[in-house]
Amino acid sequence: MSKELIRLRDLCMAYDDELVLDHLNLYINDKEFLTLLGPSGCGKTTTLRIIGGFTTPGSGDVLFDGVRINDVPPYKRQINTVFQKYALFPHLNVFENVAFGLRMQRKPDPANPRRKVKLPEEEIRERVLEMLEAVSLKGFENRRTDALSGGQQQRVAIARALVNRPKVLLLDEPLGALDLKLRKDMQIELKRIQQQVGITFIYVTHDQEEALTMSDTIVVMDKGSIQQIGTPEDIYNEPKNAFVADFIGESNIIDGIMVRDQLVQLYGRQFPCLDSGFAPSEPVDVVIRPEDIDIVPVEQGQLTGTVTNVTFKGMQYDIIVDFRGFKWLIQTTDHSPVGARIGIKIDPDGIHVMKKSRYSGLYGDYSSFSDEYDELDAVEPEEGGDEA
Question: CATH fold of 252-378, please?
Fold first, then answer.
C-alpha cells in the first residue's frame, strides 16, 4: 500500500480579492507521478508553489510526512522544482550546472560534528555522474549548455534538481517550450526518470495528452476547485461532469433522460448503457467519445444524421454530423462525404452517463468546427429535422 507523503488540507488563496484556491483538499503518495491538470487560472501553479514553499496559503495546512510545513522556507524542504525556463548557467558546463547545488551543501565534519564542511569532491563527482546517467546524458559532462538541444537542457535541469536527492520533484509545465515531437519523446523520458529514481513527481500542465501519458494520478482543476481525481483511465472513461469530459479528450455531451438503470434516452430513442444509480426519468448528461461511434447504413442506425464537415487526420477522419441541429464529432477510418446521410450505432460501453452539474449545456456541440455552420444557422430547418 502506498504511503501518504503530502497532504493539502483546506487550502484557500486569493489575489486582489479573487479566489484562486477554494478549500482545496488533496493527498499525494510517496513515489507517485501526480499531475495537476486544468486551464489557465484554475489554481494548479499556485498549488505547486504552495507545496514548494514559494507561496504561503491564505489559510489551510501543508503537511509533509505528517508535519506541518507552512512556515518552512523552500530551501529547507525536501522538495526541488523544475520550471518551464530551465535557468541553466551558460558560463558553466553540464557537469558544473548539475554540481552547483552540491557545492553549496555542507555536512557535519566526522572529526568535529559541530563543524560543517563541504562535500568531498569525490562524492560530488560520483553523484553528478550517477544523475547524468539517469537522465541519459552520460558523456555530456564537458558540453556547454547553450550547445544542447531543448530536450537535453531540460534533462540537465532535472538532473540538477534530482542530484540533491529530494523526496519530491515539482515540474511546472517544463515541456511548454519544446516542439511537438520532442515534447512527445520527453513525456516518455520523464516517466522513465521518475520510475528509475523512485521519488514523487508533481507535474503541472494544461495539456491533457501529457497528463494521460505520464501520470499515475490526474487531478483535474477548474476555478480553484478539484473536479475529479483518478487514474488516466478513470478520468477518461468515467468523467464526473461535463467540464472533465470536455477537458480530457474530445467528447460529444448530450442532454438525456435516465429511463432506469442501464437504459438512457436520447432524442426520444432508448439506448442500453452500463450506468446505474440514477432516479427514474432523471435528467442527465451523456458522454459519447468520438471513437466509440460506428457509422452504419441509415436503415441500421440507432440515429441518423447528415455529414457537414470532413477533416483528414492521417490515421482517421474527423467527421462532423448534424443530429437535429446538434453537431457530433465522429472519429473513424471510414470516409463519408459532406452531405451524406449516415446511421450510427453505439455499444452500451461507449455511453457514459453523468449527473447534471453547473457545467451542463456548456460543452459537447461541434458546431464551430463545421464550415457550414453560419449557412445552416441562417436557414430554417426542414420540418421534422433528422430522425431520432
Answer: OB fold (Dihydrolipoamide Acetyltransferase, E2P) (2.40.50)
- Cell 455499444 belongs to 347
Q: Name the CATH superfamily for 4-234.
A: P-loop containing nucleotide triphosphate hydrolases (3.40.50.300)
Which has the closest alpha carbon to 74: 90, 84, 62, 60? 62
Strand partners for 24: 11
Contact between residue 305 and residue 342 where contact means Cβ atoms under 8 Å apart: yes
> Would you write out the chain's pLDDT as a tens digit for each of its 388 residues?
679 999 999 999 999 889 999 999 999 999 999 999 999 999 999 999 999 999 999 999 999 999 999 999 998 999 999 887 778 999 999 999 999 989 888 777 777 877 888 888 999 999 999 999 988 899 999 999 989 988 899 889 999 999 989 999 999 988 877 788 888 888 998 999 999 999 999 999 999 999 999 999 999 999 999 999 999 999 999 999 999 999 998 999 999 999 999 999 999 999 999 999 999 999 999 999 999 999 999 999 999 999 999 999 988 999 999 998 899 999 999 999 999 999 999 999 999 999 999 999 999 899 865 444 344 344 444 333 455 5
